[in-house]
Amino acid sequence: MTLFPFAEYWTFYTAFTAAVLLLLAADLGIFHRKAHAVSFKEALLWVCFWVALALAFCFGLFQYSLD
Questions:
Q1: pTM here?
Q2: Are the CB atoms for 47 and 40 separated by under 8 Å?
Q3: 19 alpha carbon, distance to own chain's centre
């Protein structure tokens, strides 16, 4: 048994890929356009943001799989 078979959930996979590419483009193209020394506080904030986003995505998958 496959949890999320591609044939049935291809729209979710497409949306996930598009969201990852969009967030990567925003991160590299908008927020980090200019090279600068990253402070510890800035690095910590970005790590917290990305970890929170990953946890929210995992929570969404978990909630969806319960149905």
A1: 0.73
A2: no
A3: 7
- The Cα 14–Cα 33 span in angstroms is 27
Contact 9/60 with Cβ under 8 angstroms?
Answer: no
Summarised one tens digit per residue, pLDDT across range 14-64 is 988 999 999 999 988 998 888 889 999 999 999 999 999 999 988 888 887
Task: Report how far apart, in Å, the C-alpha atoms of 51 and of each of 46, 55, 59, 61 are.
Answer: 9, 6, 12, 15
Amino acid at 45: L
Tell me the C-alpha distance between 54 and 64, whole Å: 15
Query: Where do the domains of the chain lie?
Result: 10-66
